[in-house]
Write a structure and sequence with these properties.
Elements (H helix, E strand, L loop, with lengths): L1 E7 L2 E2 L8 E8 L2 E9 L4 H11 L4 E3 L5 H9 L3 E3 L6 H9 L15
Parallel strand pairs: 1-5, 5-6
Antiparallel strand pairs: 1-2, 1-3, 3-4
Helix pairs in contact: 1-2
């Protein structure tokens, strides 16, 4: 499994469509085996979808995501965990323990 987190200085970046970096985690047998910080190119839902597709990500962890972007990400088959704040590594560990909440995605006001 590959997990992408909107990223800024060890924390989850506020709005995924404006993030300049994603931290991508490779997970095997329920454990993180590697991670790397990758630059994003562009902005908005197209950037998010392109990034997730290019890097074969199965999960997106973010804070704010617009409704159109959320739908576009879900169309790729990736699962979205929104309204997540704090440390990126801690959020991934919570997901792997089954403790990260699903369905609390913050949908911002612009499309």
């Amino acid at each position: 499994m590959r997990i992408a987190v909107s990223y800024d200085n060890k924390s989850i970046f506020k709005h995924v469509g404006d993030t300049k970096e994603f931290k991508v985690y490779d997970v095997e047998n329920g454990n993180v085996v590697s991670s790397e910080v990758l630059q994003s190119v562009g902005a908005g839902r197209g950037m998010v979808v392109d990034f997730l597709t290019k890097h074969s990500c199965d999960v997106l962890i973010c804070n704010e995501i617009c409704g159109g972007a959320k739908g576009a990400v879900e169309e790729t088959g990736a699962k979205v965990y929104g309204a997540v704040t704090g440390n990126a590594d801690a959020a991934v560990e919570a997901l792997l323990r089954g403790e990260l909440k699903d369905g609390d995605t913050v949908v911002c006001n612009h499309e």
